[in-house]
Structures are given as C-alpha cells and as structure tokens.
Amino acid sequence: MSIAQGLDYLRDGHPACSLAAFGDLGTRLVLRSSAATEHPQEFYDKLCAQAAGTFGLSDGLQRPDGVAAGNEVVVLTPQDARVFVRSPENGSDFVGCICDAQQDLNDIAASAAAMLSEATATP
Amino acid sequence: MMPKLRPSRRAGRKEATDPLRRAVERLASDEVSDETVEEGGFGALIDRIAQEVDETILPRNFALIGASGEVAVLTVSNRRLLGVEASGSPLIPGVATGGRAAEEFSDILRAVWEVSAPLRLVLKGRADGFSIEDASCSALDLRQAAAEPAAEQGMEGFLSAVQAQAQAWFCRAGIAVQPIQDGAPEASETLTALARDVAAQRAKSKAGAVRAPSSQRPTCAILPYDGDRRVLVAEEADALILALADAAATEALVAAWKLAFRP
After folding, report:
1. What's the pLDDT tens digit per position in B109-127?
2. Under 8 Å between Cβ of B255 and B263
3. Mutate to test the interface with B, among A77, A80, A86 (most CBs of B within 10 A)
4. What is the pLDDT of residue B156?
5. B221 and A75 in contact by Cβ < 8 A?
6. B192 burial class (0-12, 13-18, 19+ CB within 10 angstroms)?
7. What is the count of residue pairs from A and B with beta carbons less than 8 Å apart?
8. Nearest by CB to A46, which of B198, B213, B218?
9. Above 90 in pLDDT, residue A97?
10. Which residues in B106-122 are b (16+ Cβ under 10 Å) and which e?
11. pLDDT digits (tens, 9 = 90+) for B29-55
12. What is the ipTM, given to two decimal places?
C-alpha cells in the first residue's frame, strides 16, 4: 500500500475526517495528503508546525520513571480536532488527521498508527 | 498523408503561456475590477480581499467603497495584509501578527461591512510609508479569522466544565507558574517544566520572522503522561493553563471543548 492510498483509506474509514496528511517532523514538510477540499501550502506548513510543536512539548514532559513519551497527541481547536501520530521507529514520520471533535479520536489515532506502520514498513 | 500523432507543441505552449501572461499583466496592472460584493455577504467580501492578498506581491493600497464613498483602505504587500484603515483611523495593532492580526483586521472589516454594505473593492495604487515589521496576516489567516464562529462559552466555559476532572491546575502568567488547585506531588515539577518549554517555544516563535506560524486561536493539546493520566495544555492569546487529568476523562474533555466552542 502506498502512502497516498493509505491516507485515502484512512479517510474512507472515517468519513468525518476531512484531511489526512503524511509528513516529516524534522523538515516540517507534508509529503502526501488526502483532503475533502483543497488547501494552500501555508495551511500544511502550519499543520506541520503544530504537530512538531506539540510533540516537542510532549517529549519535554517530565514523566514518572520508566514512562516513555507517547507517539499520539491531540490538539483541539474551536473548529476541529487534530490527531497527530508519529512513527515509533524513527520519530519523524507522522500522520495528521483533522476531524470533527465528536468523532472517536482514539479510533482515528489507532487507524492512523496502523496506516503509518504499514505504509512506512520496509519490505 | 501522415497521421497526426501528437498535438502541436506550439499550441500547447500557447495554452500554457496565456494564463501566465494574464497573471503577469494582472500583477503589474494598477487597475482592478470594481466588482460589487453584496450577494455573498461578509464572507464574499473576505473571499474577495483574500484573493487580492494572495495575488498581490508589490505594495498596493485597496479601497473599500460604500454608498457614501471610501470607507476603508487596505495595504497589501508580499501576499500579506499589512493594514486596514477605517474612517480615517489607522489601525496600530502593535506586534501582533498571524492569527491575532487577522482577528483584528477581520473585526474592523466586519464593522465596516455592517455599517456600509454593499462594498466595492478598488485598487488605489502603489502603497508606501509602511513597514514590513508592522502587524500582518496572510489570506489564509484572514479567511480563518473571519470564519471563526463566536464561541458560546469559550475557554472560560471549557475550564469551568472540566475543572472537576483535573487533578492539578496551573496558570502561567509572566514567568511564574501559579498553582490554581493542588494535586499530585510530582505535578508541580512536571507542569512547571512544561510551562518553561512553552515559554521557550513562544520566545523562539516571536524571535522568528513576521511570518512565524503562530496562531492566537484557542487550542487545547492533550498529551500522554502516564498510563492513567493526560496533560492538558490550554492556550488562548497570552494565557496558558496546564493541568493533569485522568485518561478516562479524555472523551468528556473533548465533549466539554466542543460544547464550550459551539457557535
């Protein structure tokens, strides 16, 4: 499965997910996306910056001993909910989903993690 | 007669260059159609302005014309809206940029629209006397700010609704992190460190270019902490609220957010 197909399947499985994007947190670039409407590049740049900033905060948290930083974060905005899942393997590849806040965000995060794992797996 | 295997390359090139030529002519022109914006309401006006912002590279002034004449002047350069001057009162939003500048511009444009609609947007000519360090926003910022529904309760309503579900609350004002509510012993250390990280991120963002991708829209990040708890980072403008909450309460937190920001 290609990354583009994976993003399309992800949105097909969650109709309230208006956008799914695959990007790189290191370079802060969205490399592939699947969206209900067209967005300018600036929108994707901001999405990447938001993902990188939120994971940065999550990594900086002082957690109890033995607890690793997670790879899933959620950002709520007045208009939507954004689920960001990053690859546990390289910590840089990530999938971001924009959806309605009434959706089951855990379910979307699980689907995004599965998609990310499958699409970035080396054959 | 030889069959024609492919379309003429010359024709294809002409098709490709025509839109480019039109775009160049439009960018270099001092004229713009003075189209009336009335059917689509305020949203159509914002779309029209955003389109001009997106397509304007050289410094230009645009005028909004109502029935009584010119009601506002917009300054645009480098695909950024740099200023909105309504009824002779220049807007000086200080160092605001991105989302917050867009909100201020949107508020002024809405006020002008409510008093003077329908309006026409007319190119006035080359702009001067502005600084690129002035507050500015992109077309996307302006569209988002104008589309933002007025929240029913907002951040205050959200925090009130979820207070019972959080174990510790901290509020950052200036440099100090002040506890609002006592909680687990390690929470103080965790949240104080997190507040410092947020402050460092913000400082870095402000030190960057005018186009720093920051937004002043309210957000609430839910971060993993341990198996049973999550950290909430709620931000709006300069306010920052940090809390630890039960992981099991995440759904309730999301529902409370949705309710608080319902238009």
Report:
1. 888 888 888 888 888 888 8
2. no
3. A77
4. 79
5. yes
6. middle
7. 93
8. B213
9. yes
10. bebbeebbeebbebbbb
11. 655 555 556 567 888 899 999 999 988
12. 0.93
> Å from B193 to nearest chain A CA?
7
CB contact under 8 A, A61 and B218: no
CA–CA min distance A110, chain B (Å) = 15
Tell me the per-residue pLDDT of B173-219, one tens digit each, with 9 for 90 and over: 544 555 555 556 666 677 777 777 776 766 666 544 333 334 467 88
Please give the full DSSP string across chain A, using - where no structure is assigned: --HHHHHHHHHHH-TTEEEEEEEETTTTEEEEEEESS---HHHHHHHHHHHHHHHHHHHH--PPTTPPPPSEEEEE-SS-EEEEEE-TTTS-EEEEEEE-TTS-HHHHHHHHHHHHHHHT---
From the number of C-beta atoms within 10 Å of its C-beta (0-12, 13-18, 19+), residue B30 rates as: exposed
